[in-house]
Amino acid sequence: MLIKTKKAILLVVAVMGLAFAAKAQNNAIGVRLSGGNQWYCAEISYQRSLDAPNRFETDLGYRVDDEFDIGYLFLTGVYQLHFDISADKNLGWYFGFGPRLEILYHDGHSGFDNPIHFAGALGVVGQVGLDYHFNAIPLQLALDYRPCLYLIPNAAFQWADFGISIRYRF
């Protein structure tokens, strides 16, 4: 398990390094924290503005399910359409969709037969939210809702994913 954790940390560092090396002006990197019934999640979040009003968000996260003692490592990509609400363009709303790839891990204490078990899942997420950009500092705050429809290995719907994000804009 320690080797897999080291690989995950190296992957996070590589993604952050690529984000800081980007030369575009409308990028943001930070964290997204979310939760639902019996679980909580932390993600490293990166956004890149495309042609207005489009942008792309990718998140690498880890979710813990307390009810079943299960951990999930996942990668989510969301293509978003962003629209300004305020005249000074600090407040906006967005919506989008994209894929999610998950790796599931449980340690056998959750009632499953195998002592250690890994499995994968593939789904499609939708996302809608509000974000605010500060003028004085390069900071972005966002609130969003991101449900997921899992397609592989079994069809399932995760509806309770409300998140808050804080990102550094560069």
Give a written overview of the molecule.
This protein is mostly beta strands. The protein has a single domain, classed as Porin, CATH 2.40.160. Helices cover about 10% and strands about 60% of the residues. It contains one helix and ten strands, in the order H-E-E-E-E-E-E-E-E-E-E. It has one helix spanning about 1-20, and strands spanning about 25-35, 40-50, 55-65, 70-85, 90-105, 115-135, 140-145, 150, 155-160, 160-170. Strands 1-2-3-4-5-6-7-10 form an eight-stranded antiparallel barrel. The protein is elongated. It starts with a helix and ends with a strand.
Low-confidence stretches: 17-24
Largest sheet: 8 strands, antiparallel, barrel
SSE pattern: HEEEEEEEEEE
The Cα radius of gyration reads 17 Å
What do the pLDDT scores average to?
A: 83
Shape: elongated
- The proportion of residues forming helix, as a percent range, comes to 10-25%
Number of helices: 1
Q: How much strand?
A: over 45%
**Number of structural units classed as domains:** 1
CATH class group: Mainly Beta
The separation of the N and C termini measures 35 Å
Q: Using DSSP, what is the number of strands?
A: 10
Structural class: mainly beta
**Spatial ordering of strands, largest sheet:** 1-2-3-4-5-6-7-10
CATH architectural name:
Beta Barrel
- CATH T-level topology: Porin
